[in-house]
Amino acid sequence: MYKNIYLKKGKEDSLLRRHPWVFSGAIAGMDDGLAEGDIVRVLTRSGDFIGVGHYQIGSITVRILSFEDRPINDGFWSERLASALDVRKSIGVIRNGDDTSTPNNTYRLVHGEGDNLPGLIVDVYDKTCVVQAHSVGMHVCRFDIAKALKAVLGDNVDSIYYKSETTLPFKAELGQENGFIYGDTDNNIAIENGLKFHIDWLKGQKTGFFIDQRENRSLLEYYAKDRTVLNMFCYTGGFSVYAMRGGAKTVHSVDSSAKAVELTNENVALNFPNDERHAAYCEDAFKYLDENDDKYDLIILDPPAFAKHRSALKNGLRGYTRLNVKGFDKIRKGGILFTFSCSQVVTKEQFRQAVFTAAAQAGRKVRILHQIHQPADHPINIYHLEGEYLKGLVLYVE
Questions:
Q1: Alpha helix (H) residue ranges in the chain
Q2: Which regions of the chain are under pLDDT 70?
Q3: Where on the phi/psi map is residue 193: left (φ > 0), alpha (ψ -120 to 50), or beta?
Q4: Helix-helix angle 74-90:142-153, to 10 degrees
Q5: Domains assigned to the chain
Q6: Strand, helix or coil for residue 199
Q7: Angle, to 10 degrees, between the axis of helix 238-245 and the axis of helix 258-271?
Q8: Which among 129, 141, 234, 342 is annotated as catalytic?
Q9: From CA 340, how far away is CA 176, in angstroms rounded?
Q10: Whether residue 234 lies in the annotated active site
Q11: What pLDDT digit, counting tens, does each position of 93-115 carry?
C-alpha cells in the first residue's frame, strides 16, 4: 500500500518508546520514487513494522502518524480529530451558550504531537477553524483534514481557513497561499473566558491569536486589582484586557508593531469602550523600559521567541537575562512580574537560570509565586517532551 523506509540497526529504540520522529541519520534506505509528503511505512533493518507516517526531506525525515499498520484515510482523520475534541470537552475549555458566566469558544483543537497528529495545528475561533501545517505531509492532506473537521464538528464549524504560508519548508517550493478551504466569513470576533477579541487570522502571527496564554491571562486578572500594569510585547492586548477586567488602575500596552498597537486598541474598545485607564504605545521594548522608571507595579514580559533554533540558544538566553534585568530595574517595590519564554529550545531550567541571573544583576529580592506553562488544550505527548515549549514565572519583587 505504502512505500517503505528502513532503519539502521538499533535505531528503532526511540520509536519503540513511542517517540514520533525519525531522524535522517537513523535511515539505512528507502524505496525508490518517494516524494516529499508521501505516507510511508517505517521498518527495522530486518523488516519488522514500526510505524506509518509522513515523509519529508530534512533532519526530521518521518513524523509518525500511527504505530499501527493501518491506512491513513478518512476514518483515521475523523478518529484522531474526534479524540482531540473529546479531550477539549473533558477539560471544559468549550463553553458556549447561556449556561456559563464565562463563555469560551476560543481553543486549540489539535496540538501536533500532543494530539498524535505531528505537524498539524488547528485553532478554533467561534465557528472558524484555522489550520496550520508544519509538514509537507499535512499540507498534502489539508483537504482530507478539512473534510474530517466538518464531519467531527458539524454545525459548530462554518468556515476553515488554511494558514501555512510561513510554516512550511520553503525549499519544498509548494507555492502555498493562505485562504479559506471551506466556507468563508467576515466575522473575526471570538470569545475567551467571557471577553471578546478580534482574531487576525489573515495577517496576524501564528493562527491570529496566542491561545496558549489563556490561563495565564486569567491568573494575571487575579493580581491586577488596583495595580498599574505594563504589558510589554502586547500583540493583541490579551493581558491588557484581562488586567482591565481585573480592576487595574492603569494599563499601558507596548509593542514595536503599529499593527499590534492598533489591534490592542480595538480589543480594549471591544470590551471597555471609552475607558481612559488604557493607553497603547508603539515603541521598542528596551527603549520604553529605559524611559519609564518606578512607574509600574505589575509588568508582563512576553516577548517573541529569542531562540528559534539551537544555534541561537546562547544569544537567546542572554536576551532573556537582559530583558528581565530591565524588568527588575523598573518595577516598583512589592510589584509582580509575569515573565515568559516561548522558545522551544530553551528548557525550563535554562529559562529559570536566565531570570535568576537577571534578579541577581538587578540586586532585587525575588520570590517565585507561580511556575506556569501552556494550558491543557496544548497537551504534551508524554513520549515527546519537546512539545513543552511555553514556560513562565510569576515573581514577587521586593
A1: 13-16, 74-90, 136-140, 142-153, 214-223, 238-245, 258-271, 285-291, 313-330, 348-362
A2: 97-99, 171-172
A3: left
A4: 50
A5: 3-66 (2.30.130.10), 74-193 (3.30.750.80), 210-397 (3.40.50.150)
A6: coil
A7: 30
A8: 342
A9: 32
A10: no
A11: 999 866 678 999 999 999 999 99
